[in-house]
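Ticket #4471: structure output looks truncated?

Reporter: J.K.
Steps to reproduce: submitted the chain below (404 residues) through the standard prediction queue, then opened the result file.
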Amino acid sequence: MSTEKDKSTSALRPRTLAVHGGTARSPFGETSEAMFLTSGYVYESAEAAEARFKGDEPGFIYSRFANPTVRMFEERMIALEGAPEGRTIEARATATGMAAVTAAMLCHLSAGDHVVAAKALFGSCRYIVEELLPRFGVTSTLVDGTDLEQWKAAIQPNTKTLFLETPSNPTLEIIDLQAVADIAHDAGARLVVDNVFATPVLQKPFEFGADVVVYSATKHIDGQGRCLGGVVLADEDFITEYLGNFLRQTGPSLSPFNAWVMLKSLETLDLRIKAHSENGEVVARFLDAHPKVARALYPTLDSHPQAALARRQMTAGGNIVAVEVKGGKEAAFRFANALKIIKISNNLGDAKSLITHPQTTTHQRLSDEARAELGISAGLLRLSVGLEDSQDLIEDLDRALAAI
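Returned output as attached by the reporter:
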């Protein structure tokens, strides 16, 4: 059964692209995107199968390689991410966000190469850089991502990749994307950016020179805590030369069902992220002024050390707030346990507000010294602000803080 693509959406604005981008309809003319739950595809003849495997004839071969529903999700992400003039961006979806990060690194690195990465990374990303890559002969150097001189000093003749996330998880460091991209390109290296906290709604790393952008689609892109998924976006040449075949041969493919769920979620991504950000700023300001809070970190608070940079790179602060309560781990646990609306969970980007204690969950594998260096104290919690009424959230937080 053939599908027909909607007419070009290149001139449309992001909110419209989130609804219509990449849609391919079957002859049935369905309104909602079709879900193609199939592992394989039928050929009209053995000759047709040969031509398709050789690449002489377009079409799908096997859903580990590509699938119509997954392809719609990829094309919609391309439309939302956008491409600076003169660049052609492609995308490949993966089973999880960490599959996206791992594939984006391993697909083009070889023994003898070197990676420079910001220290402020999600725990599993630190594992990739510090423990997994060295097993394959790829060395790494970790730097303070906010210190451009450290990036420059860490460059070696064999440096192939610079890797960062901004805002960072969980302390919301903001890194100068354009400056780090320039450092990477001067060294003949690529910049890989994990843009999960900002999403393509609030920040577009390609506009600042990034070469590869990765997402855990599990987070805001799904937005309701249902499905795992990831996606890698990069120049077409990178996908063709490195990533496409790596994913095809190693198999971390996104399921068509999850891709369909993500497609439906993308329809409301722009609306949700803006509402998340409004709630996030209100909650951050409340926490920043509370006497039982030692510090609150949020990109657009004046007290944030990189607030000016955040305002240049991002259109809003997002929905993640780092809050350090006075009294250490005992106080942090008492606070989290006293919350009623906000739930304890290590996920984020959900419609529901969620809170976690990074020292004992997402970053528990790091040494005490590494956590201290990143500002992950015993009293620090990461709050993912949801879509509830902000006043209800403030009242819930106020009651819980009173329990400390």
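Triage note (M.O.): checked the attachment and the full token line is present. The mean pLDDT is 96.
Status: closed, working as intended.
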